[in-house]
Amino acid sequence: MILQEVLVDTAPFITEDSVVFGLLMIALGFVFYTSSQTTGFWGKFYKYVPALLMCYLIPSILSSTGIIGTEWKELEDGVLVEKSSSLYQMASRYLLPAALVLMTLSIDLKAVFNLGPKALIMFLTGSVGIIIGGPIALMIFISISPESFDATGADAIWRGLSTIAGSWIGGGANQAAMLEVYGYNQELFGGVLLVDIIVANLWMAMILLGIGSSARFDKWTGADVSSIEKLKQKVNAYSQSVKREASFTDMMVILGIGFGAVAIARFTGDYLGDMMDSNPAVADNIYLSFLTSKFFWLISIATVIGIILSYTPLKKYEGAGASRIGSIFIYILVATIGVHMDLSTILENPLLILVGIVWMAIHAGLLILMAKLIKAPYFFLAVGSQANVGGAASAPVVAAEFHPSLTTVGVLLAVFGYVVGTVGAIACTILMQIVATA
């Protein structure tokens, strides 16, 4: 009986990546076809629900209903084998950096910096929200159910929550650093990781939903969006001035630019990541451990390549649709991110999920308050938050939804998150430890 309980096949209905990819592309095609309808039901529907949100939600529904999945256990000849989909890995490691290059080709870096300090202020506010939100949420639930948080030693919940702080301020490398530094029981880490994924994805869905009401939010805060509009208009004007009907050669050159840059970024990033990892002065320094992340180097180098190419004649390929191809890659990434949002897992550890939700609510509330105080537009709130919580995989997605020319803002803030992630997570963890042991 015990053996039967252990050998549980949890495979979704469809496990073949090529079939899953086809379903995701059908979903994307459906969303863009229906969102192009200006009248009838769909015209009214997309007036309030952004198309990007639907590109995210439909895959999550497919995942939640067991049709597709990300990780599962499958019985093979009486042996339970762990398996997973590689679609997100493909999209984040190949399509995302290529998209960043293609969407940065037409960027005016000086105009990006002319957006002013509000983007950075909102990002740092989001970081502070994570730092104080963790201990406040933990204090609330300890007072409600102290017996649920009385674990000590390596099982202490504050140690586990430290990894969420690392992830939500920085990224995966910062999360790994927190796991190592505070020595949380790795057998329990899966439950904490689930909280990270579920709450972060729920928040991203709310951010995307809010894009549809961004104009009303900006009116409420009294935000001056003139600098953002000027950047959009400048890039649009340039795109129109070089716009032409793309030939087959143009398409091949654009793909060559994008994936050629990915090859350079991947090769260089792998080398730098390995070099940093083999250097004890870096690898053993928790504040510099993000430098061992190959993904950090991949995204950073791809962005730098895109910025450099924006000062070359290759910039003219924006007129042949470089940013549009980049946008396609971004939407595929969004769909693969959506697959990770399995709503059925929310009930697996409800109390810990609630801690995460309250934690994120404090982060959101502080951002909204700061946006009102400094009259920041919704764009800065959304990108500043996702640069913290979602990192380099999500911040460019949200920024690009406002305009491809703004993608670089999301990337720059996300990269900055890697830098401050470990310091912020340690500050958060110290406060959570004080709360848990008081």
Helix content: over 70%
Quaternary class = single chain
Order of helices and strands: HHHHEEHHHHHHHHHHHHHHHH
Q: What is the count of helical runs?
A: 20
Q: What structural class should be given to the helix and strand makeup? A: mainly alpha
- Beta fraction: under 5%
The end-to-end distance, rounded to whole angstroms, is 43 Å
Q: Largest beta sheet: what is the strand line-up?
A: 1-2
Which geometry do the CA atoms define? globular
Largest sheet: 2 strands, antiparallel
If you average the pLDDT, what whole number results?
Answer: 86
Summarize the structure.
71% of the residues lie in helices and 3% in strands. It is mainly alpha-helical.
Outline the structure in words:
Helix 7 (118-144) packs parallel to helix 20 (407-437), helix 9 runs parallel beside helix 20 and helix 10 (189-211) packs parallel to helix 17. With 438 residues, the protein is mostly helical. The protein is globular, with a radius of gyration of 22 Å. It contains 20 helices and two strands. The protein has a two-stranded antiparallel ribbon. The two termini are 43 Å apart. Strand 1 (71-76) and strand 2 form a beta hairpin.
